[in-house]
Amino acid sequence: MTPGVLAGYVAVPVFGALMFAAPAITRPTLQFGVRIPPAQARAAVIRRERRAYYWRSAAVAVCGAAAAIIFWGAGSRWLPRAILLLEIAADAGCIWLARRKVIAAKTAEGWFAGVRPTVVADTSWRTQPQPFPVRWLIPAISVIAATIIIGAIRYPHLPAHLAIGLATLRARRVPRSPVSAFALVIAQLFVTGMWTGLLVLIYRSRPDIDPADPAATLRGYRRLLDSFTKAALTLVALVDLTFGLAACQVWQLYHLHGTSAALPLLPAAAGVLILIAVAMRAGRNRIRPASGQRPGPAVAAGPDDDRFWKAGLIYVNRADPAIVVPVRIGVGWTLNLGNPAAWLIIGVVIATVAGLAVIRIAAGM
Amino acid sequence: MLLSIEPDGPVPIYQQIRDRIVEAIAGGELPAGSHLPATRQLAVDLGINFHTVNKAYDLLRHEGLLRIGRKSGAVVARDAASGPPRPGWEQDWAGRLRTLLAEAAAQGLPADDVLRHCQAALAGFAFPVAPVAPAEGGAAAGARS
After folding, report:
1. Whether the model pTM is above 0.95
2. Which residues from A are below 8 Å from B37, CB to CB?
């Protein structure tokens, strides 16, 4: 089993657990991606559908984990991906079932009747912006710099053919060239640049403010953004470290055999776990003030904008100038696909990936 | 400053933005020299067209409450401590106040209640409220109108 297949199997139970926990870190006024007034956050249908979702998603997670264990020995790299895809589809189905029931109750009982849809903005968000934690980029930049220095020292001593691959047992042999020798450095630069760019975009995006309790939700959002960005930049540094360790193997500084070939993947795996833990904790803390209080009268609620959220997951609103918006289920951000700038960003990412692929092919990799 | 608007409300959105900013200036939340977000940024935060924010800012600029510069952006131009209003402003304002008070009278709201609402609103603003006797206040309002 290659480390890539191993990572695929590990992703199955991790994703199952995340989907199971998603409602616990979602705002009470956004149940399964459906906007509801604060007074209905504890409605009977919400409680019932949350319970049902927990049972269904737990069953999906257990089935996925069981499949991963059963097929653990099979070497196919497509098998863990197929299991993961099935798990994603099943979890999407669980959300769809709960969402359908909540929308039906919301429509039938007229939850938004008598509620004033309100939008709240904090002007200080723009006039006194939260500073981007630039210092947390230092580890990633240091790792890249160290990798480049080691590569520059090793390059003249490398053989005519290099065994390249990211911690794989069966590495391919390609002719030595600056591109083939420094392919993993290019990967480091791409990951660091892309992630930093996306995080800056998130920092400048619209904050997630609940009109029912604007001050508390904004405080929670500031904390979440700060801790999430620091964890994401830590992940970037650890992914760069994984690439750096793999590059050192390509440059014949060490050689690992058997299962130990997966060792360079450990920093990246640790980074993913750190990011998940931080996002879960920050997401839980964000909704704690609201959940600790008794729901008040339905005087203010966000606008009933469910029609812009396809399946509660994809945001398409041509009238909204925002490019990046907070997601409705769990913790994270998504692009407003109704904004041409969002498609430009997607295009730039795809073009960069395609450009790197062309460089790889041109270098005989 | 938390700026809240009701997108589906009867008052136009640009007017709501203008009103909230005027209230924040009067309440001392936005003193003279305070910066406001750029029109595009505020439009993103409110999920509305930036022309709507532009219209609100333009209105505030015409009223002398906002100064808009290329480098400085939108800055609050004056507040309660900046001295008396420009000549002629008080007459315009008194005309609008008369209409507002007329609405209360037409709806049958007693003069005492009207004054109570006025005093409650004034108590939240940055300048000191002079004690007003109900009968004299009513007469004054009538005389001014």
Report:
1. no
2. 121, 123, 125-127
